[in-house]
Amino acid sequence: MADDESTTKQKRKSSASSSSDRAIEKLAEGRVLIDAENAYTADTIGYLHTVLCQIGLPRSPIKERVWTRANGGVGLRVAAGAIFDNQDWIDQPMPQGPYARLVLADISTHAVRYKTRAVPMEDSVSAYMRQRLQVAVSGGKKGTYTAFKREAQALAAAEVSLSVPLADGGRMQTKAPPIETFKAWMVDDGPQQALWPCELVLDAKFYESLRNHATPIDMRAYRSLGESCLAMDIYAWLANRLRRLKAPQDLYWSALANQFGGYSDVARFRKEFLKRLKEVKTVYPEAHVEEVKGRRGEVGGKLVLKPSTPPVPRVGVVVPAAIGARLELGNPIGGADHRPEVGGSEKSSALEMHGPPREQPRDPQHHLRACIKQLSSWLQLVPKDHKQRSRWELELKAAKRELLMPE
Fold first, then answer.
1. Which has the closest alpha carbon to 207: 117, 77, 103, 100?
2. Cα dist. 314→36, 37, 43, 282, 343 in Å?
3. Segments of 234-356 assigned E as strands
4. Helix, strand, coil distribution of the chain in percent, nearest 5
């Protein structure tokens, strides 16, 4: 019996270690891609509804059929729905998890980019996972295929209500489920069958709200954080919040714990939040966020947000739709007046132009400095016994020697 318990513990430890290694490798890969090319030229600009940046979906399975959350005057209500399987209506769980977030970002991005409510899908679940979301497909009860199908169906069936404040002091409440209808059929997907849509149609009210309140994100960063829903939510929140700041803002841990939810212990939330924030800053290095410790130990202190360049820097604001579409497709617009803009209005229009800042004089040692910054950030993330740590330490020393920096 003792041997069985020991074996079980070893398996759990091995599984946790493997998950941690996978998360670190995804972050490292994401950072390499982001350092090599900006989101504009890499064509990886994505969009999320601003309300869903302020208030994310549930991060883990919950039994409740209705879930509510409020933050900064914005309210979100999500009700679990049902799907008909040719015989009966089958209750779906509350939409939650990383795949529901990735699907929502993917369909929102397509809708904003192509200005349409109809979003075409791939021929099968696995094709959509690989080609659109760039997620590795694995079978079995605990595989990514099973988890993805469960989360995607829950999202498709969910009913959503949004409540936002208006400039005149009033308030607008809208019943706006992201997905209005979807045409689906049973597909053979390897050894399994799945009910899979050939096309999704976004709800008209959700689509109109999305066009007026879309926050741009870098999909490479968002995908690389997919091992942690909290990290994905922090990234989306900072992408929306930091660009609108005009001055530093203090946030206390109790307020943050209430905003993100899921934690009854503020000290435990703070510890987990800071861990995930470090991951977020790996793929969003321009985020100026720092902790200020207080006098009350673990619970004391605050988080300070400072005005920062957004993950997708803007090169202008509200322009004719045709010009905005050309910019999104990578066709530049010349002229000396197109300068980058940091920050922005609270209302993020889908017609805004997002792209890289103007070309700056190139530092001849730019590559070395970027390499040192990248390796240093990785070494802060990885545990001491990580299999790649020694190699990265040697590469960091070599780069510093070449740049004549103290080791």
1. 117
2. 19, 16, 14, 21, 9
3. 249-252, 289-292, 302-305
4. 45, 20, 35
Of 108-122, 188-202, 318-332, 388-402, which gets the smallest average pLDDT? Answer: 318-332
**Shared domain check, 301 and 157:** yes
Question: Do residues 75 and 111 make contact, with C-beta atoms less than 8 angstroms apart?
Answer: no
* One-letter-per-residue 3-state SS of 113-139: HHCCCEEECCCCHHHHHHHHCCCCCCC
How many CA atoms, within 13 angstroms, populate the side-chain half-sphere of residue 355?
21
Bridge partner residues of 160 (DSSP): 78
With respect to residue 360, please indicate whether it lies within any of the assigned structural domains.
Answer: no
Query: Angle CA(360)–CA(39)–CA(120) in degrees, nearest 5?
Result: 155
Q: Which of 274, 305, 336 is the last residue of a domain?
A: 305
Neighbouring C-alpha atoms within 13 Å toward the C-beta of 73: 8
Tokens 């601003």 correspond to 50
Pair (382, 299) in one structural domain: no
Q: Which of 305, 321, 342 is the last residue of a domain?
A: 305
My answer on whether 54 and 170 are in the same domain is yes
Q: How many domains does the chain have?
A: 2
What range does the domain containing 182 cover?
A: 18-305
pLDDT tens for each residue of 100-155 = 999 999 999 999 999 999 888 887 888 889 989 998 888 888 888 889 888 988 88
Q: Against a cut of 0.70, is the pTM above it?
A: yes
If asked whether residues 237 and 385 sit together in one domain, one would say no
